[in-house]
Amino acid sequence: MQGSFLVIEVMSWAAIRGQEAAREQVLRYWRSGRWGHAYALTGPAGIGKRLFARELAKGLMCERRAAELAACDRCPSCLQVLAETHPDVHVVRTPEGKHSLPVEQMREFCAALWRKPLRGGWVVGIVEDAEEMNAESANAFLKTLEEPPAGVVILLVASSWERLLPTIRSRCQQVSLRPLGREDVAAILTEHGVEDEAVREAALRWCRGSASRALAIARGGLWELREELLSRLFQGQVEVEGWVKRCLEYAEGAGKESAAQRERAELVLDVLLEGLREGLRWGVIGGSGSSPEEQRQQTLGLRFGVEQILDWQERTLQAYEHLDRRVPLPLVFESLFEHYAQACSGLKVQTTPAG
Ligand SMILES: [Zn+2]
Known about the structure:
This protein is of the alpha/beta class. The protein contains 15 helices and 5 strands. α5 runs parallel beside α6 and α14 (about 290-325) crosses α15 (about 330-345).
């Protein structure tokens, strides 16, 4: 291991955990002379795709680059990329409150890529939310994506490769980023000062390898909401209006960005689904749970029976699809809880375990 190169390299890329394979892939293109002009960084939310794009931009732009594509984090170029003020790094993203990337913004972005670099090096264009291009903005983008000026690198950030339009996919190389491992998420929680063991455990359990989900769980009061909803559901007390209001409060606690709100809405569905799954298990196998949590789930199984719980599960899974299709959150929750409530109002209490 030789000296300062390694130190610099580790400092710069260390901020991005768990994506060594993706980084290796990019380095292979760089070393092999097959360096392309467009890369799609794909993978679920909260695993570091935007950080990765920034790091790559920094690595290309750095004035004191020591190792391959590894930035020094100190030169004027690096500092400008970090502050999002570098004149040759252009970013386009879906504006807050919009569900697609408007064509006007795409045109501006492309025009910027065609200008001469102000600092004389590479020009990097980053398209965040690349799957949210509509047909019009994709059309406006295609020519630049297909044949950008020399020295331009375009990085597309997308939640999955399949969600990109085929015309976009055929013009870039995929770099797939992975969900984070438990250790990486645990380290990120520590970095963000999350110390309470129960909260950490909950975050690790529900995060599906996503750092942003883990932090949303640790900070947003998901655990309390889970208790509230499940304990009432298990008693057959679903009050639609109040539930919708409570869940919206929780989702909106993530801030104005709709993606962050949807992420929290998804977490609500996660905890409901898990509660139902457990209830179903007790409903099917019977027996008696030993912990208060198990006894509660068993009550759900007994009270509603297997078919009803399966139906709720089905509806909850549909709600994920609604979220995916950008149905407004109040409607997603309302239609789901209406369905829960219907079954509660016609409650037929079973006195023996099913099966
Ligand atoms: Zn630098």
